[in-house]
Design a protein that fits this description.
four-stranded antiparallel beta sheet; 18 helices; elongated; 582 residues; six-stranded mixed beta sheet
Length: 582
């Protein structure tokens, strides 16, 4: 817990001067406020008995000066709080965002989007309260408590001993409640994460929920998460307030005892009336400030569970890292890829790729086929270093890809997935995403090459049409052609096609295939597909099974061999016949 606290405070290092200024302002305000009981003591013990109006006038003048200083410090304190809060929050959120990018694809496959959004926004916003309220509040209440106790001792050490007995009485009972609070705080933090994830799922699955008339089902799940969070909030704060109530009880018992003993000391001429009043005011101040300080610390303990999750996240090592001095490829590259005895598995499970070896020559068109789960998509992830191989090596133009900079490697590759992300931006922005510095002429040329220019011009604002979330204003085929336009604009040396036409109808597939044929000319191409009819013209077809190459050859050669590929092709023919008859 302590290490988590030090870590979250480390974001204040850069602003230490602001923090020191804030601390000085808070201490100054505390000292001024604690002068008031001394003024009252002097008024009761000296001014009233002697009718010393000169002393009274001086005290009033000094009090006005203190009030003016106090107001100035208060304005400065509020401004400093705001600056510290915003700057530290900005740095924390930026580091989280950058680290999410560093962790890369492997992280996104293991964590939900709702969990990621909670890390990026939900938890930092909660922790923002630490910088703005809790930390300054702890300094303020700590300063008040320290100076109040010091002044209590100066005023009457005998009454201070009595007060200490009642302070210790609470702290003797408090640890039992603290343990319950720690347990409840952890459960509360987990319930908040669960609700964030559920909220994201509910918003993201709107189409499916309506299609299946499952709104009531989803609402029940959401209300269950809300109810669980609300219950934990109530339990946690009940424990916090129970602790405060126990402290209040010991405080009031202490006040009654101090008054009784104080009156006795006055009768024995060991204490003045003004001193008793001042002592009681200091005692009230200590009680109030200590109660607030304990509540403040309790709230920080709740936050520390969220801080721990953020700290663990920030210290999570990325699966893929660059060498200290990575190699930059000279463009254009030749496009030769070599897979040398590579093996790979996810999270220490079964091997997905098992000593896979194959060589792809520059400009060669290679198709990879096989049953689902044989390792085709995993191979694509390894080529782009979304993951690294467990054994063996992948080489690009005879250079191990682990030795290349990620920017250099990925700028040489062009992916076309079955589903491609479309931003809620204009058509032009979505295409230019591949090369932000591209001119309008290059943009249009890429769109024409992808057979996308005509449908783009039919849109309400042409290339300036905003496409909505995930491109909901476009059909699946139009989205795919937009993705191809990106690829033409990027102009990579190696093209990776992952089921690029499997999600569209036959007529759209013909149009997209024509664009692909144009794109593939003069480039190294690796295609994953279940539609074997689209790869008849490929140079080489690699058949995979359980992470290994089991067959290799041209389309006709593999059919004539009547092996693994023949069975796959025969199965596809039967499926097509079934669909046609249906």
């Amino acid at each position: 817990m302590f290490l988590n606290y030090l870590w979250i405070l480390s974001y204040l290092k850069r602003y230490w001067l602001l923090v020191v200024s804030l601390t000085i302002s808070i201490i100054g305000m505390a000292i001024i406020e604690l002068m008031v009981p001394k003024f009252i003591q002097t008024f009761i013990d000296k001014i009233l008995p002697t009718q010393d109006y000169n002393l009274f006038s001086n005290m009033i003048g000094l009090l006005v000066l203190f009030i003016a200083v106090y107001l100035g410090l208060s304005v400065g304190e509020n401004m400093l709080r705001r600056h510290i809060q915003e700057k530290a929050f900005r740095d924390l959120q930026m580091e989280i965002f950058q680290h999410i990018r560093t962790l890369g694809y492997a992280y996104y496959e293991q964590k939900t989007v709702g969990h990621t959004l909670a890390l990026l926004h939900g938890k930092p916003v909660a922790i923002q309260r630490l910088y703005k309220v809790l930390l300054p509040g702890m300094i303020q209440k700590g300063a008040f408590s320290f100076f109040s106790i010091f002044l209590m001792l100066i005023t009457s050490w005998k009454l201070s001993l009595i007060a200490a007995v009642f302070f210790l009485l609470f702290y003797f009972c408090g640890p039992v409640v603290v343990r319950k609070l720690d347990q409840s705080s952890k459960i509360l933090a987990d319930a908040q994460v669960e609700l964030n994830q559920k909220a994201y799922e509910s918003v993201s699955s709107t189409k499916e929920l309506r299609a299946y008339s499952a709104e009531d089902w989803d609402l029940k799940r959401f209300l269950t998460s809300v109810g669980k969070l609300n219950h934990n909030v109530v339990v946690t704060y009940f424990i916090i307030y129970l602790r405060s109530s126990i402290q209040a009880l010991t405080n009031y018992l202490g006040i009654l005892t101090i008054i009784a003993i104080g009156v006795l000391l006055i009768q024995l001429n060991q204490l003045s009336s003004g001193m008793l009043i001042a002592f009681l005011l200091y005692y009230f101040s200590v009680n109030y400030q200590l109660t607030g300080l304990i509540t403040n610390i309790s709230e920080q303990k709740i936050l520390m569970y969220q801080v721990k999750e953020l700290r663990d996240f920030i210290h999570t090592a990325p699966v893929v890292t660059e060498n200290e001095c990575p190699i930059e490829l000279e463009h254009p590259i030749r496009g030769e890829l070599t897979f040398n005895e590579i093996s790979f598995k996810y999270n220490d499970g079964k091997n997905i790729l098992n000593r896979f070896s194959f060589n792809i020559m520059p400009g060669q068109h290679v198709a990879i086929v096989g049953e689902s789960g044989c390792g085709k998509s995993t191979l694509f992830k390894l080529i782009g270093r979304f993951y690294d191989t467990d054994e063996g090596m992948i080489l690009l133009d005879n250079i191990p890809i682990q030795n290349l900079s990620l920017q250099s490697l990925r700028s040489s590759l062009g992916y076309v997935f079955q589903e491609n992300f479309i931003f809620d931006k204009s058509v032009a922005d979505n295409i230019r995403f591949a090369r932000p510095e591209a001119t309008e002429e290059q943009l249009i040329h890429a769109a024409k090459a992808a057979n996308a220019h005509d449908f783009i011009m039919d849109l309400p604002a042409g290339y300036n049409t905003v496409l909505g979330e995930r491109g909901n204003k476009l059909s699946g085929g139009q989205q795919q052609r937009l993705a191809l336009a990106r690829l033409f604009l990027k102009n990579p040396s190696i093209v990776l096609l992952d089921e690029a036409t499997s999600a569209v109808d036959h007529f759209t597939e013909v149009e997209i295939q024509a664009s692909l044929d144009t794109l593939m000319k003069g480039r190294t191409v690796i295609a994953i597909t279940h539609r074997l009819s689209t790869i008849k013209h490929f140079d080489v077809i690699v058949v995979m099974n359980e992470g290994k190459v089991v067959e290799m050859g041209t389309y006709d050669q593999l059919l004539n061999a009547r092996g693994w590929f023949f069975d796959l092709a025969n199965g596809e023919t039967k499926r097509e016949e079934y669909v046609t008859n249906a």
